[in-house]
Specification:
Length: about 220
């Protein structure tokens, strides 16, 4: 019991510390998370039928939302995308510039803003099941939405035909579903373990969380 209490207090102190940091230090954390995303982007598994490989980026994106919150998590992904588009070779495969995956990078920012909003605002969202649901919505709507839209524009512009919407899904989404669900489960489990179940940010449900069982 004493060990559990110490761990819970450490988690609360860490998130409270992050919340109260000065802007330069928050910016440093955002930059560090962008670097982590760039490193995980190099964990890639190319597929022969699509220019979009399986990578570890989305795992970093989901964790950035939880660890840094809405705005600074979003800023970390904006840094990642902006520097990559400017020429820093830390996109998947050590690439840079606006490529076939440009829409997904925009989606990283949107997904982080979405998950980070709930993670910071509601204690209840820090449960495993709630976090998993949020992460799946973020992944399959906020990342794949702009990702598929940009891919449908990029492909014809580079001499490649997209025969149908089904073909677009086969290139840009369907092959990655199992991997993305696995990464979301892992990220939700980590989020459940590292987040504090105490209010550190004036959360509106701060007086109700103790009456819930948070799986």
């Amino acid at each position: 019991m004493e060990l559990t209490a110490r761990i819970n207090e450490a988690k609360y102190s860490a998130f409270r510390w992050r919340h109260e940091l000065s802007i330069p230090r928050k910016l440093a954390l955002a930059m560090a998370m962008a670097v982590v995303t760039g490193l995980l982007a190099q964990v890639r598994f190319p597929l022969p039928w699509t220019p979009v490989p399986i990578t570890g980026q989305t795992f970093a994106v989901l964790l950035a939302a939880v660890l840094l919150g809405k705005w600074w998590g979003g800023i970390s992904m904006a840094i990642y995308g902006g520097l990559g588009w400017a020429g820093l070779p830390w996109f998947q495969g050590g690439t840079a510039g606006i490529t076939a995956t440009g829409g997904y990078v925009i989606g990283f920012v949107l997904a982080t803003l979405f998950v980070g909003y709930f993670a910071d605002k509601y204690v209840r969202s820090r449960s495993f099941l709630a976090m998993l649901g949020l992460m799946l919505v973020a992944n399959f709507i906020f990342i794949y939405g702009p990702g598929l839209l940009w891919l449908s524009i990029w492909m014809p512009g580079h001499g490649k035909t997209v025969a149908s919407f089904t073909a677009l899904l086969s290139m840009g989404m369907i092959p990655f579903i199992a991997g993305d669900i696995t990464k979301a489960i892992a990220a939700a489990a980590i989020a459940r373990g590292v987040t504090t179940k105490r209010a550190f940010n004036g959360e509106p449900d701060k007086d109700r969380w103790a009456n819930w069982r948070i799986p």
